[in-house]
Amino acid sequence: MGRVGTTDAMNRAPSGIACGVLAIAMLAGCASLQTPGEAAPLPEPPAAWRAAVSVGGPGDSSPQALAAWWRRFADPTLGALVDDALRSATDVQAARARLRSARAARDLAAAGLRPNVGANASAQASRSEGRATTRQYRSGFDAAWEADLWGAGRAGVAAAEADVQAGAAALGQAQVAIAAEVAATLIDLRSLQARRATTEASLASQQHTLRITQWRAEAGLVTQLDVEQQRTTVAQTQAQLPALQAGIEQAMHALAVLTGRAPGELNSRLAAAAPLPEAPAGLALDIPARVLSQRPDVQAAEARVRAAVVRVDAVDARRLPSLQLSGSIGLSALSLSTLVPGTGVASLLAAVDWPVLDFGRLRAQVRGQEAALEEARVDHRATVLAALQEVEDTLVALRGAREQRASQQGAAESARRAARLAEQRYAAGLTDITSVLIAQRSLLAAEDALATTSAAVATQHVRLYKALGGGWTPTGEAATADPATAPTTTAASAAERGDRR
Question: What confidence tens digit (pLDDT) does each residue in 134-144 have?
Answer without folding.
Answer: 777 777 778 77
